[in-house]
Amino acid sequence: MTHLRAVVLGAAAGGGLPQWNCGCQNCNAARDGSIPAASQSSVAFSANGSDWAILNASPDIRYQIAAAPPLHPTGPRDSPIRSVVLTNGDIDHVVGLLTLREKQAFTLFTTAAIAEVLDDNPIFRALDPAFVRREIVALGKPFEIAAGLTAEMFVVPGKVPLYMEGETVDTELEGEQTVGVHLTAGGRAAYYLPGCAKVTDALAERMRGAPLVFFDGTVWENEEMIRLGVGAKTGARMGHMSMAGAGGSMAAFAPLDVARKIFVHMNNTNPVLDPSSPERAEVEAAGWEVAFDGMEVTA
Fold first, then answer.
1. Which domains are present in the chain?
2. CA distance 290 to 26
3. For 46, 88, 214, 263, which has the most beta carbons within 10 A of its beta carbon?
4. pLDDT tens sequence across 9-55
5. Which of 45, 33, 226 lies closest to 152 in space, CA to CA?
């Protein structure tokens, strides 16, 4: 029987938890084992448990694969990973491609804009085209990413990667730079949106009544990093919604009747990463779950 199966490889945003240079409360608690550590953002999906697609290749991908038995090699050079799908060109979503350069066949799916980002950096030529087939996909057009598993990309408000920013930055850009993914298998469906600056009316209608949504949980509140003294940018300036507040994602999703809602891509400063925090209790009371490394979900 076909199921839509997901394994959260990494639940944290860029830098992970603990972040190497951060001494915030969460990072220190993760270092001493008081709260769970988390690697950088990635989720694997499968329709049959044997053929897998990875959504976003994080810098931690070697360790993430090692920690996920379904992704282990089945022979001397036989991996169950059939494809990698990129939702944007952020460093924490593309650097892992360099780890996957060892002459292993898979398909790399991107939008034209994300493909241009990779093409502009010669280091990604390490992915031998004789093994790694690059396929540019159009928004709104379904494509198969593993046996029995179909994906469709759609517009999500966001911004260009940090290393492409100019003097003026549109943090709610709607185009091919930031996308969400609709996954389907055997009549089952899920959405994956690890980055989102705003739930527009069009996005809300797309999400309405969805059975399963993995959604951007970068920050709890907009000025979180500034308040903690670990950064100068708000969540909005980084192209991410807050969870809390009237303009936050929990409020935006409240009327949408989504059956299962899971936050992914949490920044190391986000208090929901502490299972005992009042913010975690508030999230769970609102019907949300907080992803963790190794979390398995079946739709």
1. 5-298 (3.60.15.10)
2. 15
3. 214
4. 999 999 999 999 999 999 999 999 999 999 999 999 999 999 999 99
5. 45
Write phi, then psi, for 99 (nearest 5 degrees): -75, -25
Distance (Å, rounded) from C-alpha 171 to C-alpha 165? 10
What tokens does 283 get? 């999230």
Contact 93, 56 (CB under 8 A): yes
Q: Cβ-count burial of 293 within 10 angstroms (0-12 exposed, 13-18 middle, 19+ buried)?
A: buried
For residue 202 the two structure tokens come to: 């069009």
Residue 27: which H helix or E strand, with range?
A: helix 25-31
81 vs 92: CA distance, rounded Å:
19
Written as six digits, the tokens of 296 are: 């398995």
CA-closest candidate to residue 65, choices 105, 96, 103, 107 = 96
- Number of CB atoms found within 10 A of residue 49's CB: 12
pLDDT in tens, 173-188: 899 999 999 999 999 9
Total Cβ atoms within 10 A of residue 165? 12
Please provide residue 61's backbone torsions phi and psi, each rounded to the nearest 5 degrees: -65, -30
Q: Is 151 helix (H, G, I), strand (E, B) or coil?
A: strand
In terms of Cβ atoms closer than 10 Å to its own Cβ (0-12, 13-18, 19+), residue 233 is middle
Q: Which residues pair with 261 in a beta bridge?
A: 213, 288
